[in-house]
């Protein structure tokens, strides 16, 4: 169990703000912090990793206290069992892919983990190349692999897919889910993408101005019942459920996630990740698949 209960005063362009977060995660959770830019999400990850210090509070992981302001405990980053994937990947430009991973090894570590991770993340053909020659998706794979070199128990992801296009983002979301399961991680994601959180996470915290305003299963947090007389939106299918004679589609539309009913004919050809257009007139939606 990971327990976070911290307070930190922040200064931003919009004025002073107090980051006050209480959250907990079980082993194997894939959880998220969601909110607008400036809400304090990245600062929170850096505090968990030991890269920033809260003003007061306590952080405990697997029974070990990492931070306790009252007792003067502040475990340094290198002794916390954490892997961190930064938003800009933070790769060393003068090192090859393999050298970037080797740099993360601690003295005396078994170097075979580097080759294992290169194979696991599909980087075998890129091992000798430099970051400047890689695509965004390839750099993301390198960053994730490097974060796993020390076999962390917690993987922290700071909007790692935000700079990628839709198709690459969808593919790498699947890869992150596989890595999370394969290495038995507890993963904490920072994202402002509801669809990404819905696909990857089993629990989430919504943050506004430094405070948790809602938490729970992504479906419960995001889905809202909305009625309108006429609309036309493009969306992405996140889930498909069979409900007696119809199907229930969970769809990301912009920053909203909605559930709509679809007939057998409308459901034909659709899968998770399909782009669709939703047209409603007089409360009767019509659904059309968007061809890639």
Structure, described:
The protein is of the alpha+beta class. It is built from eight helices and 16 strands. The protein folds into two domains: 2-223, Rossmann fold (3-Layer(aba) Sandwich); 230-281, Beta Barrel (OB fold (Dihydrolipoamide Acetyltransferase, E2P)). It has helices at residues 41-49, 97-103, 112-120, 136-147, 166-182, 194-200, 218-222, 264-267, and strands at 2-12, 15-25, 30-34, 56-61, 64-68, 73-74, 82-85, 154-158, 186-191, 203-208, 211-216, 230-243, 246-253, 256-262, 275-281, 284-289. Helix 2 runs parallel beside helix 4 (136-147).
The number of distinct structural domains comes to 2
CATH topology of the largest domain: Rossmann fold
Gross morphology is globular
Helix content: 10-25%
Structural class: alpha+beta
Strand content: 35-45%
């Amino acid at each position: 169990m990971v327990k976070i209960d911290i307070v930190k005063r922040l200064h931003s362009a919009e004025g002073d703000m107090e980051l006050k977060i209480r959250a907990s995660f079980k082993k194997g959770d894939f959880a998220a912090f969601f909110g607008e830019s400036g809400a304090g999400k990245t600062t929170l990850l850096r505090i968990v990793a030991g890269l920033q210090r809260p003003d007061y509070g306590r952080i405990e992981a697997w029974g070990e206290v990492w931070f306790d302001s009252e007792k003067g405990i502040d475990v340094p980053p290198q002794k916390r069992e954490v892997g961190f994937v930064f938003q800009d990947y933070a790769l060393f430009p003068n090192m090859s892919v393999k050298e970037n991973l080797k740099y993360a090894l601690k003295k005396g570590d078994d170097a075979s983990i580097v080759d294992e991770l290169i194979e696991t993340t599909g980087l075998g053909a890129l091992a000798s190349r430099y970051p400047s020659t890689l695509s965004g998706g390839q750099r993301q794979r390198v960053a994730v692999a490097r974060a796993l070199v020390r076999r962390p128990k917690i993987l922290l992801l700071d909007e790692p897919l935000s700079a990628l296009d839709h198709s690459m983002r969808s593919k790498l979301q699947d890869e992150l889910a596989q890595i999370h399961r394969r290495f038995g991680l507890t993963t904490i994601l920072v994202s402002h993408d509801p669809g990404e959180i819905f696909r990857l996470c089993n629990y989430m915290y919504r943050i506004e101005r430094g405070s948790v305003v809602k938490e729970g299963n992504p479906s419960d947090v995001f889905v809202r019942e909305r009625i309108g007389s006429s609309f036309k939106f493009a969306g992405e299918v996140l889930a498909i459920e069979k409900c007696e004679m119809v199907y229930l589609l969970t769809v990301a539309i912009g920053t909203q996630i909605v559930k709509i009913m679809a007939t057998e004919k409308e459901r034909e050809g659709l899968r998770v990740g399909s782009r669709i257009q939703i047209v409603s007139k007089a409360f009767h939606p019509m659904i059309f698949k968007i061809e890639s």
